[in-house]
Amino acid sequence: MGDQAVPAGHTPERLHKGVIPSMLRLQKALPDRYTTAHPDELSEWIGAAKAELGSRVYILGHHYQRDEVMRWADARGDSFGLSRTAAEQSEAEFVVFCGVHFMAESADILTGPHQQVILPDLNAGCSMADMADIDSVEEAWDSLAAVTDIDRVVPVTYMNSAASLKAFVGAHGGVVCTSSNARAVLTWALGADGSGHSRGDQVLFFPDQHLGRNTGFELGYGAEDMAVWNPRLDQGGLDDHTLKSSTLLLWKGHCSVHQRFTPAHVEAFRSEHPGGIVVAHPECSHEVVEVADLVGSTDFIIRAVAEAPPGSVIGVGTEIHLVKRLDDETPDKTVVSLDPLVCPCSTMFRVDAAHLAWVLEGLVAGEVRNRITVDEDTATWARVALERMLATV
Ligand code: 13P
Ligand code: SF4
Fold it and tell me: Which element (helix H / strand E) includes 99?
């Protein structure tokens, strides 16, 4: 927790186990120097601190970050790309992760012991990640074990989850996935590649039901092969038969940003832009994915825009900062959000130039602010699950 005060009763262990929702991480208020600074001053301070730190610091920026932050990133990427970059980034003493908490945790797990990972604002959590905590996942596992052959169930967690969940899947023969490799990971888990080496017959997929469902359909499974596990209900709200017969058990979680998109948005876009191209992120509902032209992770969306013919109008179902940046950086194409009512990710948005300046100037002064650490026990098993993912794709 770096130099942050943890409220009474919220021990780091409880926070770490995911018992306390991440939004209670409580970033302390920044000194006035940062909150009252003009944007030009902040840029000057960030530039100066970055220059002084040189190769000691490496800044990673997720595609949903604001432009005022992204311009300083040494590497931009989606969750998968950034986890790979973090793993390869063995020189920098400090990795400043401009993204959200679970991403910084993964970076801490994948970087070396001589490196420290920093999240500029501790309140940059993820509401989807908070929808599955370790206690509920362990309860689900025990309930499943009472009904199914648990040795044939492979737990798969989306990258958007706490380190404790990644450790859980690592310790139970499972794996992490991201939106760019979910298909390869489920194929690995279920042996759907015809190799005959299936690791299991069923997958418990958390926390995003949409990514799980969309990937399941993509692999040729039908609605009858999937069931939603509701962690608030006994036995997930499912009867024994459904539990035994479902290939994919999908945790009832979602991304509040991507779940906003509807087929009506797609319809409205198409009637306004006949011939337009619709690209959606797989965290969108299946109803949206079904009517989209292209579906993929944030990196995929960037490639899809780059490959579209000049003059194209592209309606995108993902976070607004990426959509706006694509429109700005692709002057020969028009890129718009499918949802006319802007939908930023409020937690990604917490990381701003002021917080970036604050952590970088702290480093220059010899003070590590907002370090994110994962305890060694958790990290060991989470690393197993992350490395399994990196080896699978
Ligand atoms: P990707 O970066 O894997 O596309 O995931 C999107 C997201 O919602 C990250 O929080
Ligand atoms: Fe979480 Fe959705 Fe924001 Fe990504 S966009 S950090 S999944 S709430």
Answer: none
Q: What pLDDT was estimated at residue 196? A: 60
Peptide bond into 207 cis (omega under 30): yes
Distance from the alpha carbon of residue 123 to the mean position of ligand 2, in angstroms: 13
pLDDT at 2 over 60: no
Q: What is the mean pLDDT of residues 81-93?
A: 89
Q: pLDDT digits over 67-80, tens only?
A: 999 999 999 998 88
CB of 115 shorter than 6 A to ligand 1: no
Pairing of strands 116-118, 94-98: parallel
**Quick one: pLDDT at residue 197?**
65
Best probe residue, ligand 2, of 255, 322, 337, 346 (max atoms within 8 Å of C-beta): 255
CA–CA gap between residue 184 and residue 215 (Å, rounded): 10
pLDDT at residue number 341: 85
State the virtual CA torsion across 260, 348, 212, 314 in degrees, nearest 10: 60
Q: Label each residue of 248-271 as H, E or C.
A: EEEECCCCCCHHHCCHHHHHHHHH
- Rounded to the nearest angstrom, the distance between the alpha carbon of 365 and the centre of ligand 1 is 33
361-375 as b/e: b if 16+ CB within 10 A: bbbbeeeebbbbbbe
User: Tokens 């490196």 label which residue?
Assistant: 115
pTM here is 0.90
